[in-house]
Design a protein that fits this description.
Layout: E1 5-7, E2 10-15, E3 23-29, E4 32-38, E5 44-48, E6 62-64, E7 67-69, E8 76-78, E9 94-95, E10 97-100, E11 103-106, E12 112-113, E13 117-118
Antiparallel strand pairs: 1-2, 2-11, 3-4, 4-5, 5-9, 6-7, 7-8, 10-11, 12-13
This protein binds FE2/S2 (inorganic) cluster (FES).
Length: 125
């Protein structure tokens, strides 16, 4: 786990190089553990590190395309939304990510976390 630096509503959590390709890194935040995922195309996504099924650690799952497969029972979760792929149903919290150069920031204040519901201006419905 790593510490974080706060700058207004965006929180700097490191660089893209801190996240393995097709892997993840967990950051501890006041809102709980957030898993940062990096795709083969260097896209970065952030999800609450808890599967919508039985709270499995998504950070330990397998990243493929823009999805991650949970290590516990193989549910597949969309990285962009936290939604479970059918036939499974459910959603984990997703957090907006900003990549500037190699720096990665997350917007915790706009996170849609499963235990707290949508807060502030999150457009996710
Ligand atoms: S806890 Fe993730 S699939 Fe069951």
């Amino acid at each position: 786990m790593d510490s974080i630096m706060t700058d207004a509503r965006w929180t700097l959590v490191g660089t893209i190089d801190d996240i393995p390709v097709l892997g993840s890194r967990v950051v501890r935040t006041p809102d709980g553990d957030i898993a940062l995922f990096r795709t083969a195309a260097d896209e970065v996504f952030a999800l609450e590190d808890a599967c919508p099924h039985k709270q499995g650690p998504l950070s330990q799952g397998i990243v493929h395309g823009r999805r991650v497969t949970c290590p516990l029972h193989n549910w597949v979760i969309e990285l962009a939304t936290g939604e479970a792929v059918a036939p499974d149903e459910g959603r984990t919290g997703h957090v907006p990510v900003r990549v500037e150069g190699r720096s990665v920031s997350i917007a915790l204040g706009m996170a849609r976390l499963s235990r707290g519901g949508c807060r502030k201006a999150c457009a996710h419905v």
